[in-house]
C-alpha cells in the first residue's frame, strides 16, 4: 500500500485505487473517491480520480468495508479494569472493525435508563477510535424506560433469560420478556436475547473444577434450545423483531428456519469462537476458553457453518467479553469460578477468514456476515458496504499473508485470549473511519444514534 499526494487540483479528499476492491458487485478493479467522510464515486481502475491523498493498493491487498461488530462488552465506566473504550476501540480498529455497538451490562451503571446512557456516552466520547453505538438493557422494572432510551438513540434492547453474571443486570422471566417485547413492538425496536434457560442449567451437572468436559455438561444444548423456542413463540405472539445472540447449539437451527418461514421476525448471530474452536481440543484448566454458552464439539461446529451458508444464521460478531486475569482464574484453572467470556475483538476477521478459506468460502461472503449483515440488523443504513453515499469506513486486508497471534501484542486491556500462539491467515494493514485513517494516537470516532448511522 503506497500513499502519494496528487499534483492536480484535488476533486476528492481521498482516492483509493486497486485491482481488488470489494464493492457490492464483488471484488473488482476500481477507484473509490471519498469526500467529507462519504463514498461519492466508484469508477473503473484507470479513470484517474484525483485527490489530496491517493492510496494505491499493493497486489496482495483488498479494500474491504469496515466490519460492524454489534456485540462488544466495553465495561466502562465501572469495570474499566476489565476493558475500556480506549483499549477496546483501538483493538477493534486493528482488526478492521470500524463500528461497534456496546452491550448495556458489565458497566456501572448498566444502560437501563437515559441517565445511565448519558454517563456511558460521556465516558466513551473522548476515547473512541472508531464509531460507537449503544444497546439499551431490558431488566425487571424498567419497562417505562424503554421508549425514552429508544428516543435517545439506542439500537435495541438486550435481555437475559438467566443470571447475567452481574447482579446489577438481572434477568427477565419469559412473561416479563413478552411484556417488554410488546412494548418494543409498539415502536418497532429490536429485542436481543441471551437465550439459555435457567431451569435447564439449574438441573444440569455442576462444573467440575478444571475439567472442560464438566463445564460443557453444565451448559447443555438443551438450555439454549428451550430458551430459543421461548424467544420464537413470544416474538410470534407480539410481532416484535427479535435477535438470538451468540448461537452455539446447532440443534436450534431447524426451529429457527421454521419460525422464519412462518414469518417470525427473527435474526441470529454466532461468534468466531463457536466457528473456530473445538471442545475436544480445549485443555483442562484452560479458562481463557470459557464462555457462555460454551464452545461445543466438532460436529456441532460444522453444522453452524452449514447454518451460515444456508442463511439460517445471519451474522458473525465477536461477543468480546474480557475480564482481568484474576477473574479468569488462570492460576487455578477452575471453570466453575472463572469469568465466562472470550477476548477476540482484534482477531475476528483473520479467524473467520482462516476457516472460511479452508472451506472454499470467499472473502465477499465473510464480509457479508461480518459487516453488511450486522449493520442491517442494527438498522445502520450507511455502514457495512463500500457503496455510494455510505460512510467511508474501510480496511485494507492482505488475505494471503499470515500471522501468529501474540496476546501481548493485542490492544485489548488484559492479555488473555484462547487464540494466543494460533497461526491465522490474513492481516489488516490499515483501517479508515469516515475517510480518516486510525492512527492509534488521536481518537476521532463518533458516538452513533439509531437513525443517524
Automatic annotation (TrEMBL):
Originating gene: allB
Sequence similarity: Belongs to the metallo-dependent hydrolases superfamily. Allantoinase family.
Domain Amidohydrolase-related intervals: 62-438
Name of the protein this chain belongs to: allantoinase
Cofactor(s) in the UniProt record: Zn(2+)
Keyword Cell division applies: no
Pfam families: Amidohydro_1
Keyword tRNA processing: no
